From TrEMBL:
GO CC term (a single one): cytoplasm
Metal-binding is among the record's keywords: yes
TM helices/strands, residue ranges: none
Name listed for the protein in its UniProt record: Iron-binding zinc finger CDGSH type domain-containing protein
UniProt-annotated stretches for the region Disordered: 1-23
InterPro entries given in the database record: FeS-contain_CDGSH-typ, MitoNEET_CISD
UniProt entry keywords in alphabetical sequence: 2Fe-2S, Iron, Iron-sulfur, Metal-binding
GO MF: 2 iron, 2 sulfur cluster binding; metal ion binding
Span of domain Iron-binding zinc finger CDGSH type: 30-74
Pfam families, per the entry: zf-CDGSH
Amino acid sequence: MPATPDESPTTEDATRRRVSMTAGGPILIEGPIRLTAADGREICCDRFLVAICTCHRSGIYPLCDTSHRRRRRVDPDS
Ligand code: FES
């Protein structure tokens, strides 16, 4: 049965890997991880926290390079 947000973690839950979604940014996963990209590449990350790009602007996609922070210029004439 899936846990609801109001439930306290059990001992079993303490061993689960945490995945966090951020507003307008990456999905954060506690590492290390082995990621299979959509094109089949296997990417091993040893970081304690791995950021997966959700905006598709990253130069190192599928990993986040913080490109999501850059705002697009707004043309005042349009
Ligand atoms: S979410 Fe960070 S670059 Fe895409």
